[in-house]
Structure formats: structure tokens, C-alpha cells
Hints:
The complex is a heterodimer of chains A (295) and B (264).
Chain A: H1 12-48, H2 55-58, H3 67-98, H4 103-121, H5 124-138, H6 145-169, H7 173-181, H8 186-215, H9 218-223, H10 244-249, H11 256-287
Helix pairs in contact in A: 1-11, 3-6, 3-8, 4-6, 5-6, 6-8, 7-8, 8-11
Chain B: E1 16-27, E2 30-41, E3 45-49, H1 56-62, E4 73-81, E5 84-85, H2 93-99, E6 100-103, H3 114-124, H4 133-143, H5 147-150, H6 163-176, E7 181-185, H7 193-206, E8 211-215, H8 219-225, E9 228-233, E10 236-242, H9 243-248, H10 253-259
Parallel strand pairs in B: 3-8, 3-9, 6-7, 7-8
Antiparallel strand pairs in B: 1-2, 1-4, 4-5, 9-10
Helix pairs in contact in B: 3-4, 3-6, 4-6
Amino acid sequence: xxxxxxxxxxxxxxxxxxxxxxxxxxxxxxxxxxxxxxxxxxxxxxxxxxxxxxxxxxxxxxxxxxxxxxxxxxxxxxxxxxxxxxxxxxxxxxxxxxxxxxxxxxxxxxxxxxxxxxxxxxxxxxxxxxxxxxxxxxxxxxxxxxxxxxxxxxxxxxxxxxxxxxxxxxxxxxxxxxxxxxxxxxxxxxxxxxxxxxxxxxxxxxxxxxxxxxxxxxxxxxxxxxxxxxxxxxxxxxxxxxxxxxxxxxxxxxxxxxxxxxxxxxxxxxxxxxxxxxxxxxxxxxxxxxxxxxx
Amino acid sequence: xxxxxxxxxxxxxxxxxxxxxxxxxxxxxxxxxxxxxxxxxxxxxxxxxxxxxxxxxxxxxxxxxxxxxxxxxxxxxxxxxxxxxxxxxxxxxxxxxxxxxxxxxxxxxxxxxxxxxxxxxxxxxxxxxxxxxxxxxxxxxxxxxxxxxxxxxxxxxxxxxxxxxxxxxxxxxxxxxxxxxxxxxxxxxxxxxxxxxxxxxxxxxxxxxxxxxxxxxxxxxxxxxxxxxxxxxxxxxxxxxxxxxxxxxxxxxxxxxxxxxxxx
Lengths: 295, 264
């Protein structure tokens, strides 16, 4: 059979135009993400800076500052990092590494996976209400640190578990086989080879989780309460102040100084989260010195 | 086509490091290896040749139980290492893999420094104290001829090395745990000719203190590095003979066609 090929279609300028259109479309999509973010951050910074005074950092709300809320938010985030971080990491490792090979076991694992996804889908205010009924009232803990930590942890554990599972699943088979062929025990290989590779993804998950926890208001209103004094480390019986409360509550007060405080609180929250981001990037960069793909 | 084995009784059990008896391996419905009985000689370099899908890699991976975790894996028959079954609970899987090391088709250094890569197995098996790690790393890297190239960047990432250097690093890592047997799964198929030659001469130097089993598609390589060759075809062992005999005077019609390049 003989045939003749025609000259390649699609002249070069057409290819260039379609490439340009695609590039512009993706850039536009990126802009839709970035512009509101920049707008929000600038809006907060521009409103907060002109009236910002460092006394905000050193006085409690009882004396026109936010020190108690800063310390409270910090305690809450550290607590969530410890509780949800441990549980989420463990759950993610189970789902990615320990899950069963038998068909029945796989069905059970599928059920567990769905359950974590359902938990992630429960609205935070519902979780908060559950915490209020079951812990604050039911167990007579009152508005306090422990119910807040438990409810916030329940909220973010699915994120951490999912991030852990996904990043473990992305570890190349070659590492696993290499570790296996060297006679490393599964747990040893996990700790020394596999988790290290998955760390950027896990850290990112933990970071997102902490940012969510730090920015959450509704469940805290139900569980932590509010306090214009410095928080204590008491787990129950003492109300805990946190930064999102002034953002929400002070803004509607008929006083300029309280409005300014609400902007200050928003600014401090942003600084919190940016710091978290930078620190986690530094950790990731340090542990990934030897990685083959930079993430 | 039915494949009748020829000359499988090349080594006495007493002279064999690994013996397979009626080994059948399958994944799900498919049977990959059918009734393999063979004695792999101690201190020999044994080449596994055969067309793609003939089961030679599966056979290699059966020898250190790397197939175990593949889904649908099933096995019949026996493999013994120095007379002891590798499947009984008495055989520690981790120790089996220390004794029977493996090098893969693609170099797979771990995401840690070059030095840590070499001693990764040594650490895992607690075979040395921390202060000896440097010396072990240097000795093994020297053994594979990589030390001079990496001595100034032992703390750096292995992924800046060339593919060939990475494979040599993996060889150093495998040798560091002092295996009795080394399984090589097409170890040079992703390497350039110069590095391939270096790996081949290293393999030649390992024998006879380490028994080597090497899967290769490269018939020239099989002739250069091995002294005994197993010819697989369609999940069966078609012929097992000294490399010289198998290539110059093949007994089985299929191996005859394969080594002459008519099939495969």
C-alpha cells in the first residue's frame, strides 16, 4: 500500500497563539487565587498598622491589649499539634503502610478511610456543639482548654491522616524494595527511609491543619469560651482566650479602640500563620538535603 | 510448547548455596514459574537468561522472598539456603535478606547522604559501632571503585551522582552487610558501556567468595560474567549448564534458538 503524507498541519504561529492562550488562562486562574489573598492581607495590614501599638502585645484584653489571646492561641495550636499530630500521623501510617492484604481486611480499611473523610466533612460548628453538650456541659469541664483541644483535634486529624497517607503512598517503590532487600525490618525502613521521603507532604498537612485550628472560631466559642485574663495551662474549669474571638466579637463593638484591636488580632493571626509556613519550609529544606526531587 | 529440562543436575546439593525443589510461583490466576528444580553452585556466577516474561526475574526474586508482598502471590515447592528452607518460620526473613543481597535494574539509593547509604544496612542490622561507619563506608566505596570520585562529598546527596555511580553506590551498600549471595536483576541495563564494564569486572572479582546470580538480557554479558547459565522459557527451566556449553553446544532446541538470536 502506498500513501503520501501531507505537510504537517498547524502552522507555527497557530501553535504559538494557542500556547499563549493557555498560558494566559492558567495565569488568570492563578490570579483569581492570589489577588483576593493579597487584597485581604493588605486590607488587614493597612487598617491595623496605623493604629498598632506594641502595648497590644504586653497587655491583656482587660487592659486594652491582646496578650492573653496571643498566649491562648499559642497554647491551643501547640496542644492541637501534639494531639492531632500524633493521632493523625499514626492513622495515616496505618492506612498507608499497615493496611491488610486480605480482602476482608481491605474492606475494613476502606470503611476506616471513609470514616475519616466523613469526619472531615462534619461542619466545625456541629463539632463545637457536640463538644459543648458532651464535654463542657456533660462532663462538667466547663469552657476550658481540654474540650477545645479535643474538638479542634477531631476536626483536623482527618487532614493530617490524609496528608500522611498520600505522601507515604507517593514514596517510590524503589526505596521500599531497596530497604526490604537490605533486610531492614518494616518499622525500621519506615522510620529511616520512607517517612523521611514523605516528610514534606506530612509537614504541609500538619501546617494546613494548624492553620485551620488557629483560624477556627465557631468550635472554640462553644468549648473554650473567652477570658480577658491570661490563660492558664489548667485543662478544665478555666476559660481560654484566643485570637479569633476579638476578630469576631470586637469588630461589632461601638468603640474605635475595640475595632482597632480586632484588626490587630487579625494581623497577629496572619503573622502567626506566615511564621508557621516559613518555619516548616526551613525544616523541610533541611531534611530534604539528600532528596532526589526537591519539593 | 512443552519444555523438558536438560542438564539440571549440574551441581551436587553439597556444592550448592541455593537449591530450588519443584518451585512453582504464581500471582493470582497466572502461573509464572512452573516446577523449577535447580541447584545454584556455591562460589559460582550464575546467569539467568530467557525472553521477557519467561520468569527469570520472578525466580531471582523468589530466592530472597521479594515476591511475598506482591498481591495474589502463591507458591509451591521449596527453596533452601545452605540446606535450610527459606520459607520456614525458623528462617528469619531479615537475616535471609542480609545473607542474600540484591541489586536492582534501576539504581535506588536512599534519600540520605552517600556515607549513610553505604552503611544503611550495617546500621539496620547493628553490625558495627557508630565510630566504625566511616571506615566501613570508605572500604566499601573503595571496593567498588567509587571512593576517589565521592570522597569530598560523602555527606552530600547521592542523587547528584551519575546513574552508573549510583548503581556502584547501591552495590557498595549491598556488599556492606557481607552477603553470601548477591542477586542482580539486570544491574547494567540502565548504564553506559564503560560503567557496565566496571560493574561486570566487579562481579567477576566477587566470585567465588560471594555467589552471584544475575538476570540479564544481554547474552554477551552472560558469557562474560557467568560460568553457569540457566535458560528460562515460558516459566520453565529449559536448560541449565555451564555457560560455555550452553552457548557453544546448547542441548535444548529452545536455548539453541535463543542463544543464536532466532527467538527472544
